[in-house]
Protein 1
Amino acid sequence: MDINEYLKNFDKFTKDPTLKAMEFLLSKFGNPQNKLKFIHIAGTNGKGSVCEMMNKILVESGYTVRKVHFSSTYKV
């Protein structure tokens, strides 16, 4: 099955998209996630704290962290 056939037959309202389905789709695009060098942290609460903890863990493990960026969509 090629990527176009897969997407054509993919039920966009599926309640149980599996990891296997996502792995198949990403493999058809050459697994671009394996080339990325960032960590995406999402959620409702705690992103700032998680960013700070991850920064400390990475730096103390010997990694060079170029930038920690935190943004919020919250508007007053």
Protein 2
Amino acid sequence: MLTTRKAAERLGVTPRQVRRYVEAGLLDAQQLGDYSTAPLVISEESVERLAQARAGEPPRRRRQATVERSAP
């Protein structure tokens, strides 16, 4: 079992993205406690499955913020 942070390191994403993967059902996780902010533990097998699935996908491009400039 992995913490959210360790799973994020293995996948090369942020801990927030790991929580999104859990919510989407892409990672198997258990919450350690009966309260909404209890930490998650993620199965190593599901992290490996997702890493292998993501290895076949092309990298996503980040959206660049557009800046509007006012005329002088």
Protein 3
Amino acid sequence: MSTEMARGSAARPSWSTLSSYHKTKMIFLAAAFFSFVLSVTLWFLVDREVGLFVGLWVPAIHSLGTLVLVGEDTQ
């Protein structure tokens, strides 16, 4: 049982083994997720207009990530 768990954890890549393409992709996804959480928080706790404004950052971050990552994956 412990050897199966060891194999399963060894099969997962760590941050240091990821390619620069995948690291960049993860950074953009994390930024978009953070923006989404911030938007929902602002919508309910501060002001709806501010939350809506920050919510518009999510597709903008995804679009920027797409532009940056186009042509990066050569595999």
